Amino acid sequence: MKLIKGGVISPKGFMASGIYSGVKRKRKDLSLIYCKGGTTTVGMFTTNKVKAAPVLVNEETLNKNNNIKALVINSGVANACTGKKGYEDAKEMTKITGQSLNIKSNEVLVASTGVIGEFLPMDKIEEGIKKLSKELGNSIDHGKWAAEGIMTTDTFIKEMAVEINIGGVPIKIGAMAKGSGMIHPNMATMLSFVTTDINMDKELLNKALKESVEDSYNMISVDGDTSTNDMVILMASGQGKNDLINNEDEDYKKFKDALHLINTTLAKKIAKDGEGATKLIEVQVKGAISKDDGKKICKSILMSNLVKTAIYGEDPNWGRIIAAAGYSKGNFNPHKVDLSLSNSEEEIELMKDGTPCIFHEKTAKKIMESDLIIISIDLKEGNNHVKGWGCDFSHDYVKINASYRS
Amino acid sequence: MKLIKGGVISPKGFMASGIYSGVKRKRKDLSLIYCKGGTTTVGMFTTNKVKAAPVLVNEETLNKNNNIKALVINSGVANACTGKKGYEDAKEMTKITGQSLNIKSNEVLVASTGVIGEFLPMDKIEEGIKKLSKELGNSIDHGKWAAEGIMTTDTFIKEMAVEINIGGVPIKIGAMAKGSGMIHPNMATMLSFVTTDINMDKELLNKALKESVEDSYNMISVDGDTSTNDMVILMASGQGKNDLINNEDEDYKKFKDALHLINTTLAKKIAKDGEGATKLIEVQVKGAISKDDGKKICKSILMSNLVKTAIYGEDPNWGRIIAAAGYSKGNFNPHKVDLSLSNSEEEIELMKDGTPCIFHEKTAKKIMESDLIIISIDLKEGNNHVKGWGCDFSHDYVKINASYRS
Q1: CA-to-CA distance for A225 and A48, rounded, in angstroms?
Q2: What value does the CA radius of gyration of chain B take, rounded to a whole number of Å?
Q3: Sheet (strand B220-221) strand order
Q4: What mean pLDDT value characterizes chain B?
Q5: In a designed cystine with A245, which of A171, A200, A385, B44 is the match (CB 3.0 to 4.6 A)?
Q6: Where is the active site (chains A, B) (predicted)?
Q7: Which tens digit of pLDDT belongs to each residue from A104-132?
Q8: Distance (Å, rounded) from C-alpha B94 to C-alpha B310?
Q9: Which residues face B347 on adjacent strands?
Q10: Which residues of chain B make contact with A182, given a CB cutoff of 8 A?
């Protein structure tokens, strides 16, 4: 597997772009991915009971048709909690995109992100889609523009591409994602769009995506709020022309590993770019009785506002970590736990067999000053290890979110 | 029922005081409640798997002996995650208190609040308890000093007393509590100590306490973090000399109502005084299928960092409220929901039957500027109504918690 420059435009058959259409102030706010030859497409969506209109529309579309040719995304307005009109607006976006590209509206998926409860400015969206469909291309810049158009409070572009070798044929996977706030994916994620030119059976694509999402996007948390608009879409053009993969052989595993690297890397980027974040936090839970117990403990630590503010303040207040593990619903025995804190260079032991250790405050301080903080907790109960990612909680989180609408 | 001046010293038979012993810098940090004649005492404790030493010691004590005569509390150090030594220190506190008051150590309960993972300065504690046991009294000031001694980042004293009439006999209930951070009680609460001179059967006292706690302390959240030290203790001296209450008659109900008023009022005070809080938030969930569904939705809204920061920023970003209801595990149909926002004077409708309403931004702004914000959500599914309380999320929460240890 090798990392290559690019993003969603890297796999064969895909074009993309992003423009400013006027939904949002002063930033690109409309993106399009297009594959003329069609794709096999699978997706995962938010488990929030309140589903945004584009989520509802895509679920319907994918139930009937997996040959998707285009995906249109706007930022600025989430088109969530917008009732019947919102649903019709999302449908209209697929229709306008279909007409502009001369394809059917049920070959188009749609996504939105931004403020909840406001209606889309459909005149601007219409004009924007028409313009955008004429500006598609497959240069690295085109991919970047598309990745820019889906950003909200994100501070950097999140895209990535890798190349793998499948039976002598080079196969590419590209992706773009956005995160920042209302980040606590559950069974799906923020917006993440993955393209590939692999030739693979739909059920296997679906399986690879589901399994990877569980351990990547679903293991990050910025603020514990699961969005109404979360979605991850995987589109496979088949234009890499490898022999069709239709069982879980070595090639399937190779693809799955590459896909998982992409998803994990983007998930970490989303965590690191959480609203107001200054540090990436990785929580490793080792020795859990079950994976589920490990995940509960991992997420509880990642979500604790007290842990997050302590890390922002560079204060190794580890009691809060143990308290957060304790109020999670995950099983463990507090008297057996080992706890340590590390960055990429140094490590200190904070607890051994449930009892506090004496540690060098200086080394602790050095670790806390890093921009990657690794919290490792060994439950010594079983053989399940899990990892998750989050970020610290700063003054800027409050600043950003106290006036998001204005 | 009438409100009276005072706190834990108001019911007959109780003395108290609070002093500075040196655990904490520059503030009272050690309190004692004493009832020479003995009491019938019941308690509820944190459900966090990681239980602080005083919680473990009290659970053991109350399993064997309900005739409690004294309760000693320190602030500054939580004596949590302190292993065997911490357990022995908590036992030692009951022993020293027992010796100082000439009672048995198993007639003493103990509580701690403060930093997790540090050991108590036992020499200072010992000296403090000896001094404190000579300074007990039952004046209003003595009650206030005791309430001061249990504060951590609390900005005001939380105490209260009421008087009720039981069969012609005046019966009093007094209480003191502390909250501020790591506030998300579960089956218990922060530190809350309630005294009464009622003469009542132990099982009934226990029942009244449990039922009241479920709808008061267990319905508040400051930051979603359930502490290792939560406890609520109810001590009844019986010295009011009413005829023993041993069934759920009118007198029992009268007492329970008064107790619930005390618990609810203190719970709201704790929510209002949440770290960095500028506003009290009340969430009313109406028409839930079950009480449990209502509570899940209520707590999810109260705990949402995005809702809390929006309210701090006085931004009626109601989409976040609906999103938080949606990712709770509570059942409802998003297409039926009514949502409104009010203060004590005005109300605006934000959603009707799941569709956004057009509302006056000016009225919304006026409501958002209040220091009490009421969020009311009608699910229109059943007959269960629940209420809960929390606070907004400000820059100061981050400031306070980024450097709590130092």
Answers
A1: 10
A2: 22
A3: B220-221, B384-391, B280-288, B372-378, B338-342, B347-352, B355-356
A4: 89
A5: A200
A6: 189 (nucleophile)
A7: 999 999 999 888 888 999 999 999 999 99
A8: 46
A9: B342
A10: 306, 320, 323
Cβ count near A36 (within 10 Å) = 15
The response to whether B212 counts as a known ligand-binding position is no
List the domain boundaries for chain A.
2-272, 280-402
**A71-85 pLDDT, tens per residue?**
999 999 989 888 889
Which amino acid, one-letter code, is at B111? Answer: A
| Cα–Cα dist B339/B322, whole Å | 8
- In the 8-state DSSP scheme, what is residue B14? E
Percent share of chain B, pLDDT over 70: 96
pLDDT confidence of residue A323: 86
Mutate which: A223, A302, A305, A400, vs B, most B CBs within 10 A? A305
Which residue from A304, A354, A393 is facing B225, i.e. has the nearest CB? A304
How far is B102 from chain A, CA to nearest CA, in Å?
Answer: 34
Q: How far apart are CA A178 and CA A159, in angstroms?
A: 9
Residue B289 and residue A335: Cα distance in Å, rounded?
40
Closest alpha carbon to B303 in B332, B336, B274, B335: B274
Cβ-contact B199, B244 below 8 angstroms: yes
Residue B189 annotated as binding site? yes
Residue A212 labelled as part of a binding site: no
Say which DSSP state B219 is in: G
* A340 annotated as ligand-binding: no
CB contact under 8 A, B83 and A354: yes
Task: Enter the tokens of residue B83.
Answer: 């292993």
Residue B17 corresponds to which tokens in the numbers above? 């005081």
> Cα–chain-centroid distance for residue B83?
26
Q: Closest to A327 (Cβ–Cβ): which among B48, B335, B351? A: B48
Determine the residue among A308, A320, A331 to mutate to test chain B binding: the one whose Cβ has the most chain B Cβ atoms within 10 Å.
Answer: A320
Catalytic residues of B: 189
CA distance B294 to B271: 19
CA distance A186 to A194: 18
Class of domain A2-272 (CATH, top level): alpha beta
Spell out which residues of chain A touch residue B395, defining contact as CB-CB under 8 Å.
Answer: 395, 398-399
**Which residues of A have a catalytic role annotated?**
189
* Residue type at position B291: K
Return the SS3 of A112.
strand
CA distance A87 to chain B (A): 12
| Cβ–Cβ < 8 Å for B290, B384 | yes
Beta bridge partners of B174: B161, B195
Asked whether this complex has an ipTM greater than 0.85, the answer is no
